[in-house]
Specification:
This is Malonate decarboxylase, gamma subunit. This protein has 233 residues and is of the alpha/beta class. The protein is built from eleven helices and eight strands. 39% of the residues are buried.
């Protein structure tokens, strides 16, 4: 879905969200409550500049608007694969963005992610997967790694991975599989304003993705392993 269409459905035609290249940012009002919105568009590659720009908005919100909710609009192809960004430390810039979002959560800001188009790789890990809750539109595309790349990394035949992906969400791309694994909390269908209202009211403040994955059958052992580790500490 086009970000303008989404923003208009959520906040009206005069929503106040601006676009600077791939970067979306702005202050909106929803049900009389101010919300900071930031995100990306056009399958943005997340490089150093874009990661730091998003982190700046988060830090400004922490400093100027304590407790204000933050909504992440996610459409990314992952990290920028460019020598310049590697030399400038793309890993540290993306980690900085993730730590800023984590700090916002720990200081009482409700942080929500919405995958409205595409979410891949590190660009998704350091945004939606760090939020209190990450939701998605049904037509969104989500994956961390394509099967050919997964085959190269794991040294397993691509045909075997394709077979495993048919009944194991961990090996399969697709928004439905991320719901099953607990990485995506729920899909927004129908009334987007009602969905955002519910997310603001009921998004968890503790990480329950492993428990959701176990309950939905997508990650059967993660929650159990986490509990066993905690008991052993």
């Amino acid at each position: 879905m086009d970000w303008q269409h989404l923003a208009t459905q959520l906040f009206g035609a005069d929503h106040g969200i601006r676009r600077d290249g791939f970067f979306l940012h702005g202050d909106v009002t929803f049900d009389g409550q101010p919300i900071t919105v930031l995100g990306t568009t056009e399958h943005a590659p997340i490089g150093v500049q874009l990661a730091l720009a998003q982190a700046r908005v988060v830090l400004d919100t922490l400093a100027r608007h304590p407790g204000r909710p933050i909504l992440l609009l996610i459409d990314t192809q992952g990290q920028q694969l460019r020598r310049r960004d590697e030399l400038l430390g793309i890993n540290r810039a993306m980690a900085h963005l993730g730590m800023c979002l984590d700090l916002a959560r720990r200081r009482g800001h409700r942080v929500l992610g919405l995958v409205y188009d595409q979410a891949l790789s590190g660009g998704f890990i350091t945004s939606g997967l760090i939020a209190d809750a990450c939701d998605a539109l049904p037509e969104a595309e989500i994956r961390v790694m394509r099967l050919p790349a997964m085959a190269r990394v794991t040294k397993l035949p691509e045909a075997l991975l394709a077979e495993l992906s048919e009944d194991n969400p961990v090996f399969a791309p697709g928004v439905g599989n991320y719901v099953a694994m607990g990485g995506v909390r729920r899909l927004w269908e129908g009334d987007f304003q009602a969905a955002l209202r519910e997310a603001l009211a009921n998004a968890p403040t503790v990480d329950q993705r492993a428990a959701d994955g176990a309950a939905r059958g997508g990650r059967r052992l993660a929650a159990e392993v986490i509990q066993r580790v905690l008991q052993a500490v």
